[in-house]
Amino acid sequence: MQEVTTHFGNVSRKCRYALRAMFELTLRQGGKPLKVNEIAASQSISVRFLEVILSELRQGGFVESRRGKSGGYLLARKADSIFVGQIINFVQGNGHRDCLDTSKQTVPGDWAMAGLWRRVNEVVDNIYNNTSFADLIAQEAAMKDDYIGNYVI
User: Fold this and answer.
1) Nearest C-alpha neighbor of 53 from the set 77, 8, 88, 28
2) Per residue in 78-131, pLDDT tens?
3) Which helix (H) or strand (E) is 48 found in, with range?
4) How many domains does the chain have?
5) What string of DSSP letters covers 95-142?
6) Is 65 exposed, middle or buried (0-12, 13-18, 19+ CB in 10 A)?
7) How far apart are CA 142 and CA 146, in angstroms?
8) Is residue 36 part of a domain?
9) pTM of the predicted structure, to 2 decimals
10) Within 13 Å and on the Cβ side, how many CA atoms surround 61?
11) Confidence bin at 152 (pLDDT 50/70/90)
12) The pLDDT of residue 83
């Protein structure tokens, strides 16, 4: 049996939460703006932390905020033009690439491993940079449709 693992690499918790907030905004786009507490509740994120994240995403041009009683957050552009890689690079830059620093090669195998991690990162970055939030919504729907619950008693 093949083991299933979840790989976040060196994507920070803040970055994962930013991705989840963007997913929620994409999932519910087209309607009224979403309140911070709605997004936080749906995605299990602290309201205070989410406020910081959404403020940064607004400054980055990924989300818009609306004031007032019916205010909240919405995507700044269409979901098919916002990519996972853009959010990762905006939120944390390339700080997740320390293993590629050739000045840190000190023991046999470090150069080979650096090459390996460079190739892995290229593949991962390609996936991130070519996956839009619209793609994620479509994938979510397809996976839900394929799910068959086990109702054995």
Assistant:
1) 88
2) 999 999 999 999 998 865 454 455 556 677 787 788 888 888 888 988 999 999
3) helix 47-59
4) 1
5) GGGGGG-GGG--STTHHHHHHHHHHHHHHHHHHHHT-BHHHHHHHHHH
6) middle
7) 6
8) yes
9) 0.80
10) 6
11) low
12) 97
The CATH number for 129's domain is 1.10.10.10
- Of how many residues is the chain composed? 153
Residue 112 domain flag:
yes
Specify if 2 maps to a domain.
no
Q: What are the pLDDT digits (tens) for 92-105? A: 886 545 445 555 66
Residue ranges making up the domain that contains 76: 13-146
Contact 62, 87 (CB under 8 A): yes
Give the single-character DSSP code of 34. Answer: B
- Map tokens 């491993």 to a residue: 113
